[in-house]
Amino acid sequence: MTPILNIISYFNPFKLFVKKESEALRPAQDAIAQSAPALEAIKTEPKKSDKRKFREATLAGLGEIGLSSSTSVAKTEPLKKHKSAIPPFFEQNFFSRISQAEKRSLTNELEKLKDQPLSQEDLRAFIEGDWSHPIFKSPNWSLQAFRACANGDLSEMQASKLFLFEEASRMTDFQTHDLSNADSVQAFLTSLKAFYSLEDFKKLPEMDLNDTQFFTFRFPLQKKKEAQTAREQRAVDVINFGIHDLEFPIHAIVHENDVEVFVIPPRLWMEVLKSKYGENAVFPEPVLGYSDADRFHDTSKRIVGIPFSFVSLPEKIHDFAFTKWLGLFFHDLFHTIIESADEHRDAWNDIVQNVKLDEKVLNEIDDRNFPLYARPELHETTAGRKLEENFEKFWYSLASFEEHDLKDFEKPENREKVLSYILSSPRFQQEHNINFDSLEICARNEPAKCSYSVKPWFESAQKVQTDLTRKKRYGFASLLEASNIPPSKPV
Predict the structure, then answer these.
(1) Which of 73, 177, 256, 419 is the most exposed place for a label (fewest CB within 10 A)?
(2) Residue 190 to residue 258: CA distance in whole angstroms
């Protein structure tokens, strides 16, 4: 029995509290009526069905975990005819990455739906995730949902869940779940044990039960290759499918013969990040399509690619062919974890904006692929010591670039460009304690063997610090305040 199972079994059984459907649905109905005048005649209540009831779940002895609040509906401009061949809603960020050819194709497909309006019952089924409703038997239901989102009748979060349902339902052993019972919660927590705990889970806010829905499917483990350990083979399997590894796979449970994959929609994922990282959590912004031109200068959010059957994706992204099996979606969720754990996002962004380096290097820094922030114990050392201080996570993340095959950082002059900016910036010193002194601490405390070494950076820093001190002494200081820390002896 796993530790998570032990913990949840201790609090078993779950107590389920049922709300009246009419009370739970009234806020959603009001929001729909406001955002879509054509639907203001909504008066009927949904059919009674235990499967669709809004329930609250609590862990016995812990008080309510709140899984109940009003469902929101986006208030965007209705889809209107436009002189251009492509409607203006495609300019919204959710749709903007779709290729021009596919925008034109979608425009034509939407035109075919003009005589097929959604009923209020269809829209309710979309909002609630009532998967047994007849609308989901329609061959073009996802296109209907796309139109509802373009019209403002569905939020981007609600539409994203529907498109993820469509994609995941094509997989083997597909199942739908919500956080209404102990078994679902146990599996949910086990799939996220690389970074998420029961204590984090208890911080989830009140949510409608339909906002706690998620999906699972399975894929077989590949045949083990010779000379590969079980851990190496697992890493091959999960990366092939875009499911990243922070010691344990994220969004997955590895069984003996297959991998059980957990598809957690952005609405629920947003609350997972907030319950774990608090105010430092990034907003997982759902988008359709893919663009190489995306940059991440807004450090408050991270885009999450949502699959949609009318929008294609490249065969390979970052040299990995993982766009099937929802691989891009999982890859982007991985980034939201390490971004939310990274307290230096603004500092990394400062480097990108202010240091002139090779574009490939700047793009890598801009991507902020630094898993040490989320799992500092991944920095393996002979002493078995994990990174504790935030400045350690920064300096060792910087050192990890050489692991990313960024050979430009092996050139001292490029290291010196970065270090010159960092060591002469008051912000790095005042806000983050990132300075010559903290780098020296890392270098002097570094064991004989570790995953990454900061010593080459410290050697370059000594030269940079000497130059900065000399310039300040003779009146040629940088416009930024230069550091006063004197150069130290080599490590």
Answers:
(1) 256
(2) 16
- Per-residue pLDDT reduced to its tens digit, 196-232: 999 999 999 999 999 999 999 988 776 656 545 665 5
CB-based contacts of 313: which residues, under 8 Å, 6+ apart?
A: 289, 290, 305, 307, 323, 328
Q: Which residues contact 392 (CB under 8 A, 6 or more apart)?
A: 376, 438, 442
Q: How confident is the model at residue 194 (pLDDT cuts 50, 70, 90)?
A: confident
Instruction: Label residue 57 exposed, middle or buried (CB < 10 Å: 0-12, 13-18, 19+).
Output: buried
The two tokens of residue 1 are 């029995």
The Cβ-side half-sphere exposure at 118, using a 13 Å CA radius, reads 30
Q: How many CB atoms lie within 10 A of CB 71?
A: 22
- Residue 140, CA distances (Å) to 109, 144, 217 in order: 10, 6, 23
Question: Could you give the angle at the alpha carbon of 402 between the alpha carbons of 397 and 408, nearest 5°?
Answer: 120
Name the one residue in this structure whose structure tokens are 């008080």: 63
pLDDT of residue 224: 56
For 160-176, how does the pLDDT look when each residue is reduced to its tens digit (9 = 90+)? Answer: 999 999 999 998 899 99
Please state, for a pLDDT cut of 70, what percent of the chain lies above it.
67
Residue recorded with tokens 């083990």: 224
Q: What average pLDDT does range 264-278 have in this prediction?
A: 97
Once rounded to an integer, what is the mean pLDDT over residues 118-146?
Answer: 97
Helix axes 436-445, 390-399, angle to 10 degrees: 80
Is residue 364 very low, low, confident or very high in pLDDT (cuts 50, 70, 90)? confident
Average pLDDT over residues 432-451: 88
